[in-house]
Inverse folding.
């Protein structure tokens, strides 16, 4: 038996997303932002999927919706959402009674992404310290590695203050709006 009710819900979701702005302008934005993310190191398909999720009114879409909107295969979407989930930019969820997964951008995703980097920065600091020992602290390579380690240490120390300032700015913004 074919689940046409689910397809009707999907079409309603897509239609409401498309009504929220000029569909052609939205698609141009998705492609441009994906190019920007790709230039910064994102895999191309993951960047397109991520941008597509950002413009979805509810911030979520099924794999089928993503494939249709981006005019790509389901396999391409599968690899992209796997990457995005791994870097903690999207989550997979399923509504009760539905058979399809939805992929949703994480609320306050940039805050969460930066805060999740704290453990990475600490790991990098430790590895770099090992590198300094391995090449010798007085060597040019050792000094370069130690400067990199110090930079990550600085970032890790500055992130909590920056995030507190961000939360304050968001609070002020929502109080004003």
């Amino acid at each position: 038996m074919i689940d046409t009710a689910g397809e009707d819900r999907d079409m309603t979701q897509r239609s409401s997303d498309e009504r929220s702005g000029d569909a052609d302008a939205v698609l141009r934005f998705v492609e441009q932002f994906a190019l920007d993310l790709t230039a910064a190191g994102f895999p191309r398909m993951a960047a397109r999927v991520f941008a597509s999720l950002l413009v979805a009114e509810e911030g979520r879409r099924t794999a089928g919706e993503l494939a249709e909107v981006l005019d790509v295969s389901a396999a391409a979407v599968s690899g992209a959402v796997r990457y995005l989930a791994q870097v903690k930019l999207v989550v997979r969820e399923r509504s009760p009674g539905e058979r399809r997964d939805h992929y949703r951008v994480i609320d306050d995703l940039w805050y969460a992404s930066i805060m999740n980097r704290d453990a990475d920065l600490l790991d990098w600091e430790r590895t770099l310290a090992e590198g300094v020992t391995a090449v010798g602290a007085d060597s040019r390579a050792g000094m370069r590695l130690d400067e990199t380690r110090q930079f990550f240490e600085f970032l890790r120390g500055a992130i909590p203050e920056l995030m507190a300032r961000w939360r304050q700015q968001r609070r002020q913004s929502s109080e004003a709006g």
